[in-house]
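Lecture 7 notes: from sequence to structure.

We start with a single chain of 106 residues. Read the sequence below before looking at the structure.
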Amino acid sequence: MANIEEYNASIDAIKALPDAEVKYPGIPIEVYIQEAENLHHWCQDDKAALEAAGLDWEVVDAISVRAGATRETQSIVVDVYFLVYWFTNIIIFVILFLNALCFVIT
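Now the structure, written as tokens:
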């Protein structure tokens, strides 16, 4: 699945999470996502042993979908951040320009 499809498939579950259950990784999100995807791939060869040890394989199958949804969410956050960043810089520039213009006029 493409990240946007994973995001759309997961958005209801993401929104349903209570704020108290949201956890922030102690590492950059792109590293966190890559580590999760690595674990998903590494688990494949040991499926029988992991299931025998009690691992619910649905959790492993969900890793790639959740990683894709997280990657898409991160893209959305970055897009919004840069939009706000540039909009703020334009406002600051306009204020400084008007301030300088008022100084020149007086």
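The mean pLDDT is 84. Keep this in mind for problem set 3.
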